[in-house]
Amino acid sequence: MARNRELNQKMRDERREQILSNALILFAAKGLSATKITDISAASGISQGLIYHYFQSKEEIFRELISSAFEKMNTACRELEKLPLPPREKIILAIEKLLEGFDVYENTSYYYLLILQATVSEAVPQEVKDIIRNQSDFPYEVMERILIEGQKEGSVRAYDARDLAVVFWTTIKGLGLNKAAHGERFKSPDPRILINIFLKE
Amino acid sequence: MARNRELNQKMRDERREQILSNALILFAAKGLSATKITDISAASGISQGLIYHYFQSKEEIFRELISSAFEKMNTACRELEKLPLPPREKIILAIEKLLEGFDVYENTSYYYLLILQATVSEAVPQEVKDIIRNQSDFPYEVMERILIEGQKEGSVRAYDARDLAVVFWTTIKGLGLNKAAHGERFKSPDPRILINIFLKE
DNA sequence: GTCTATATCCAGATAGAC
DNA sequence: GTCTATCTGGATATAGAC
């Protein structure tokens, strides 16, 4: 009996994941309001009504995706900061991994697009805005700290660290968007171009 | 009689402009599909039905805004390229003017957001997609040509010029988005950070 | 030119059969 | 768990009065 309940729960979770992953691509491409429940159900190969056995509303699906996007990003930042490496190496590693991510994991660029849509759009539920407000500064803070450390170390250029952190993330986000928008045609730029923005030669 | 017709036409055009400028802000913030005709009419202080005396549909408003956004951007690029300046100076000028634009003209960042929404979204009419496909490469091409000239001149770093052009525009677009998303809190970074990406010291 | 009222459509969510 | 049928609300666009 308990076995059965566990198995059911597992199947339920898997189905939820499947719906979420289809919804991610749709939300990223069309935004929250232009994505219909029928789009999501069709992409998942199930009837429209069945969606509501797994989620309470379209907004709930959106909210879960946004939460997990920030969770992934902020976890990665936390781990980067804790690595036992000098700031200079952290910056190089971050840029290389982020650029690599665009090519290797297809979902990555969709997440960038999703977060962007949600950050920018006024047409998202309040709870989602709250998640964004609470979580979106963290990557900037981490990068600013690393850059300041790097300036003490002497490896990072002597511009305002906050400015450098802003340039760091806007460039990464911009590239993620480019990839999402142009798909096949997109080619990551030479990482040395980006590394050179922050590090002295 | 002709006087009257001219005057009427002028008033009509002015009203259209006023509707367009309100719609720009709404579309940029919420996207095409989440922006309701009533949002636009309310922002313009007129009844919902009256919108249809000036435009055939919500999509037509969107299309006009996209057209004029690309027109402005591509005209600016064409003029930049024609300036009687060495490549090095063109790059510095472009970065300074683009960053300045964020602070001086409020509308600029909304246009970036609008173009981004339209480029990325599958939920836009076919005609809009066609405009985007035909117009969106031009700024990249211009910048690539300027960068190549600069490499011949010896002032521009020796990375792949296409990569540099991509980094140029993704960084600018990213900053435009930041400004649009964070409004008040946004502060343009030191232009020298960006100039240094492209030019040798 | 401008408004109010309304026809029409479409999407989110629910109910109930299997 | 899954589907089909349906309720309900809201948004586009039109019609018609002023």
From TrEMBL, chains A, B:
It holds the Pfam family TetR_N. GO terms for molecular function: DNA binding. Residues 13-73 form the HTH tetR-type domain. Coiled coil: none annotated. Keywords: DNA-binding, Transcription, Transcription regulation. Residues 36-55 bind DNA. This is HTH tetR-type domain-containing protein. It comes from Formimonas warabiya.
